[in-house]
From TrEMBL:
Name the record gives this protein: SnoaL-like polyketide cyclase
GO terms under biological process: polyketide metabolic process
Top-level taxonomic group: Bacteria
Organism field: Amycolatopsis cihanbeyliensis
Pfam families: SnoaL
Length: 130
């Protein structure tokens, strides 16, 4: 696939699966050997943040890889990493590196601002209700 087609695949994943909730599209986007992990991640995050929105801040493609710099927004309505729901909005950033083969994602590496997210959850737990 071309670099443009690879970028389009990642945009489709983010816009249609993450932002529009069309999880049924995962088999078209992820290779069979990685699909279960992708679905599990989606489930964990959307259970904790049902209104999760993923914004693409930057997208770079080279050969068989696409790097996405993302900003995620959502309301903490479910347990996440041991934190009980706070009902407060959170925002955190992530960088994902997708490897694509045969028109599907075969690998995804991730680095996210987990510390920043946990700080927001802790602050929300101790903040007085407004």
């Amino acid at each position: 696939m071309s670099e443009r087609a690879n970028k389009d695949l990642v945009v489709r994943l983010i816009e249609q699966v993450w932002n529009a909730g069309k999880v049924e599209l995962l088999p078209r986007l992820w290779a069979e050997e990685t699909r279960a992990d992708a679905l599990a991640l989606h489930q964990v995050l959307t259970d904790a943040f049902p209104d999760l929105r993923v914004d693409i801040e930057e997208l770079v493609a080279g050969q068989d890889r696409v790097v996405a710099r993302l900003r995620l927004h959502g309301t903490h309505r479910g347990e996440f990493l041991g934190a009980e729901p706070t009902q407060r909005p959170v925002t955190f950033t992530a960088i994902r590196i997708y490897r694509i083969a045969g028109g599907r994602i075969v690998e995804a590496l991730a680095d996210q601002d987990a510390m920043g997210l946990l700080q927001q959850l802790r602050e929300a737990e101790t903040a007085p209700d407004s």
